[in-house]
Design goal:
The chain has one domain (3-86). Helix content is 83%, strand content 0%. The chain contains four helices and no strands.
Length: 87
């Protein structure tokens, strides 16, 4: 079997089991998403890791935007309440 065949063949159930086990480990899993997502290896695993990294980037961005929104809203509300208390 050539390297090209190994890259193109689907992962077995056992290989997926190990993949998901490793990806579930804190910090090591995050590193492995990048290793498998951008390294040479199985195409299915590479595409899966890239898709998960894309979802993580979207979730992180939405989380930061939500935090900024809450900080702005909270600061505005605190300023209004302190103004109201001074009257």
């Amino acid at each position: 079997m050539s390297d090209h065949d190994a890259v193109e063949k689907p992962l077995t159930t056992g290989e997926w089991f190990v993949t998901l086990l490793v990806l579930g480990l804190p910090l090591i899993g995050l590193v492995m998403y990048f290793v498998w997502g951008f390294g040479a290896g199985n195409v299915g695993r590479r595409n899966f890791c890239r898709a998960v990294l894309l979802w993580l980037a979207i979730a992180f961005t939405l989380g930061v935007l939500t935090l900024i929104g809450f900080l702005i809203f909270g600061g505005t509300l605190a300023a209004l309440l302190s103004q109201q208390a001074q009257r």
